[in-house]
Structure prediction request, 391 residues.
Amino acid sequence: MLRIVPSFDRIGEENAFAVLARAGALAAQGRDIVNLGIGQPDFPTPPHIVEAGIKALRDGHHGYTPAVGIAPLREAVARDLHRRHGVEVSPDAVMIVPGGKVTMFMAILMFGEPGAEILYPDPGFPIYRSMIEFTGATPVPVPIREANGFAFSAQETLSLITERTRLLIVNSPANPTGGVTPKSEIDALVEGLEAHPGVAVLSDEIYGTMTYDGGTHVSLLAYPEIRDRLIHLDGASKTYAMTGWRLGWSVWPKPLYDAARKLAVNSFSCVNAATQWAGVAALDGPQDCVVAMVTEFDRRRRLMVDGLNRLPNVSCITPKGAFYAFPNVARTGWKAKALASALLDEAGVAVIGGPDFGVYGEGYLRLSYANSAENIGRALERMGQFLSERP
Ligand code: PLP
Prediction:
């Protein structure tokens, strides 16, 4: 009998992948499925980025690179952070990793152990909790409330810090809610954190380029007060429609950087070389492709929110960032996960039940509007029909 170590009993999943598989299986049986479940842009990677990847392969970039990533990409990340947030970051603090997830994996491994508490947003990206549990640390959910526009509440977050808290995970713009935490709240959070110098902060800013209605994303990198304990997470997956390339980057405080480098050496060695050169083209190249994608997401966002608010017993606040809507379906009388399954099986619409993002996700669904306006329209029509027939 093979015996896997017990910590694997505690590792979780990302249900979006299971929904994607189930939607694919139904489609293979000939069912017409509209998939609003998975969180990835439906655009192809912009051509100049693809060309840079191909050129890198043609130019012979076939070998290992430094574990922390090639210098031109680390320099491009530093330039991008300066351009977007006006912050000075040394390329020597930047680490290139195979996707945004890897930064959270590393950060949670560094601070998670039995007895430690890690604060994470709930509803939030499911891998936070999964990894925290894997390490044996205690996951402490920070409620992300609709009444607060799905933003972090500085006061509520700070009130959950104890002498055992080792890491606080923040995410804005947020998955799954689309919430954007305003600068005033971030100011208050950073101010409050000064009383807790032993708490590290992981700021997941993977949707940082996607804000709407004139709102801007405030990076935690812009706060010198916490730079010595801030891990900044970002990557190319969402901004440049590169989910399958596996390219992320992070900025680490000096004492943690070498630990991150060692984790890289012990696991993936480096991100594949051609992908890294494509990343240089993404960050240094024209940004109009990003503007065009975000403009299109904005159009679809309004379409989706309008449509959701017309469904019986459904209400949806307008998300300010990312590419998700998080409608409140509590008044339909359905449990959210049961509703998500029934919508897939009976109406051919794949969405994710809020509880897949945490206990505070009950009563909500997550719909991705990284899909065509036509598909969003079809999905809303089917949902409307389903909810009127099966209230
Ligand atoms: N962080 C958040 C909040 C996400 O929603 C995702 C992906 O869905 C990631 C990180 C991971 O991104 P990547 O695909 O680059 O690993």
